[in-house]
Structures are given as structure tokens and as C-alpha cells.
Amino acid sequence: MSVKIRLQRHGKKQKPFYWVVAADARSKRDGKYLEKIGTYNPNTNPATIELNLDSAVKWLHNGAQPTDTAKAILSYKGALLKHHLDGGIRKGALTQEQADAKLAAWLEAKAGKVDAKKEGLTKAQAADKAKAFKAEQEVNAKRLAAAAQAEADAIAAATPAVEEEVVAEVEAEEAPAAEENNETTEA
Fold it and tell me: Does 187 have pLDDT greater than 60?
């Protein structure tokens, strides 16, 4: 029986979620499996991977062949490195302590890289939000200025009409008064 370490799709349409499983090569993609080794969620940024390292290494020792994507996941989490170091221990090139120290150093460096990427993504997201907020404020300021200008123009346009009415009323009041003054001076 040929065993493969591969991904088994779960989730819903457009939102895939995968289980990393050890399965018989002849079984269906989402069918029967021998053991669930971990999970992989590509919907998050960076992708979330949970893997039982010891179980994955056990299957690699027993001859399981990972698919391309599963191999990338196992490499990312250090399962292939641990398998390689265990081979060195079996041959006598390393002691268990040396192999554990190398794996721990590699895992620590990898965790630092992942944390740096998460920080970079968080900073980029915050910068994008700040930039969008600033642009929105500028648009709002222009909109308010345009509204104030339109209101001022409307008032200015209405003012001459009001002034003309006032001037007409004043002239109408002054005309009879002037006629009265003319009549009183003639008499």
C-alpha cells in the first residue's frame, strides 16, 4: 500500500480549508484517510498552518510521499528538517541533543520571520487605513467648502434682488414726500 501525505479539502465555496492527512494513494481526495496530521487555512494572511510534527515525521519515516503542496507545508513547519536530522542520528553523524538544538534554532528563526511578516502586514494595513482616512477628510473638507461657497453665492445672488426691492420701496416713499414738499413751498 502506497501512502501519500496530502491535503483534503473542507470548508465552503470560495472559502477552502484543508486537512493535512496521511491517506492511501488509491483513496479519493476527500475520502478515507489513515490519520489526520494537521490543518491548513489559506484564507488568513499569512496562511494558518497547524501540524502535528511528530506524526508527520513518523509517516515520513514509514515511507509516505508528500504531494507538492503538502511538501511545501511540511518544509515550512520543519517536518522535513526533523526527518533529515533523524536520518543523521540513525547514521551516527549527529547526537539527539545536537539535532534537537538545530531544529530549535531553525524553528526560532522561522518564528521570527513569520512575526516580522505579521508586523509588516499590520503596519501596512494601519498605513492604508490612515491614508484612506486622510483622503476622506480632504474630500469632506472640499465638499463642505463647496457647500459654503454655494450658500454664499445664493445669498449674494439674492441680496441684489432684495436691495433693488428696498431701493424701489425707498424711492416710492421719497416721491410722495418730495411732492408734498413742493406743494408746501409753493403755497
Answer: no
